[in-house]
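ok trying again, last paste got cut off:
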Amino acid sequence: MDFLARSHPEIINSVSRLLDVSTTYYLRKLLRQHRHHLKSIVASGASIPADDLSDLGAVLTSLYLEPEELMDVVDQLDRLVAAHEAMSAQPAQFQAELVQLEEKIFWFLGYKSYAVGRQGSIMLVESEPVSAKRLSDALTEKGYEVTVARAADQVLKQLRLNVPNIFLMAVKLPDMSGFKLCQQLKAVPEVAQIPVLLLGEVNCIQEKVQAFESGAVDYLSKPIQVEELALRITASRQRQDLQNQLVEQNKALQLEVHECASMKERHRNIFENAVIGMFQSTAAGRYLRVNSALALLYGYKSPQALIKEVSAIDRQIYVEADRRNEFTIYMRHFQTVTAFEAQVRRRDGSVLWVSESVRSVFDESGTFLFYEGSVQDITDRKRMEHLLQTQSRITEILTLTPTVMQASPLILTAVGELLGWHRGELWLLHQSRQVMHEVDRWIAPMSRTPVPTVFPPPLAKDQGFPGLVWSHGEPLWVAHLQQIPQITSDEQIRYRDVQSAVGFPLIAGYQTVGLILFFSRTPDELDENLMGMLTTLSRQFAQFIDRRYIDTALKQSEKRLQAATQELSTTLAELQTLQIEVLKADLDALTVDRDS
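nice, full thing came through this time. structure:
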């Protein structure tokens, strides 16, 4: 060390400067608390021993002769002390880490710690020096970290630096009684739950009662027996730990109850305010719970009305009861289904397409409780899919079918099924071009309307619904067919079960060549997309009819031309024969004259 001081005096100065007051104070406190559990690992006389009173800068320079190593040790001690001080604020949480840090710190100071029992920290409040030292040493040997305060004011100051696990205080203190100090500590929320053991001068019942009334958990009278004190401290710690556990469990339980209530409220709000239909139902087909969106989707006034009125989902909601049976079988095997599509019937009888995503709910024992799921209206998507399929189907019909009368029933059926209406008619322009006459009709199979065997008389413009569509020259929808002024008496009878109707003029070029009409028993207005698509299809059909008319006219012209050609050939042949006969006669006459 003398050599180091003479050759590198700047090292000694730098160590003293780098080990600042706070680090030095903390290292001395650790040495004082653990001095009974430290064993030197340095040969006797090889270095200055470290204790709570020694010059720690000199101790380090005697242990580490290389300047670089010395400065590295100083840096590591700074970091270890900072980490230990931070973790000491929560000793229960970082108990293992604190032990490891202390082992490293003591190793750098030339010691090895052994049998360190980390029992916790105690703040001993005792004004009598001999008693304070005796109790502090004894409790330190038991594995406690002991901080000594001589008076009540020192307690409040030290609490700013370190909060103990237990207070051990004498009743007689120089600035106030232990009873009063205990009461003050219990009034501070940060330390109110820390157990307080009071050490009295006499063994009397009055002081014991006063101790418990002030908030202490135990009372011992002097002279203090260390073994008894250690047992009392352990018992107080155990009671406090149990109390803390109960407090934490109670907090956790309250938090769990609050979270459960909040979750139920959130679930209820989501369920009731969701924009998609949600439900819970039995496997037998009764609704247990539905939200407002589902009631609105199915056309009921309220969720309660839907639950009350629907007792059999398969018959009252599903259009096809077998589809519900398929759903039930699938759920029985797989417990969940996604995007299950089906047609459902609303309260007013109208039909929707829906997509259901459902799961089976079981209790803790595995017993089935109910189905829970969501319902989305996919009618628009299914209608668009059907629309595109119908458009493709009609295009194929118009491409592959040779005649109008062969194409007509196929087109009426395709469009009628697309609309879901019960009747369709095709009217074509008469050869006179003055009237339209019905040439074909379609009746929905489920409409229970008999198919007429005769067609009605032709109608001119502005006569009946066909004449109204003809004169209008554009697609026309009427909500109440029986109320239009143009309706004829024959139509009133023929359409007595009809409420709404839609008509599309079949226009080729500038000429209306026909009409395609559809009729419904309910006031079903077509949406813009459907009207647009049917208008396009009617134009394609009109062009098809026009082409077939042209083809027919060409074929008829060809036949007439063939007939005229045949007639001309016959006439020419007859003329040729006659000419030959005349020539023969003339030749015969010349021969007779020459002979005579």
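cool. Residues 1-8 have pLDDT under 50 and may be disordered. The radius of gyration is 54 Å.
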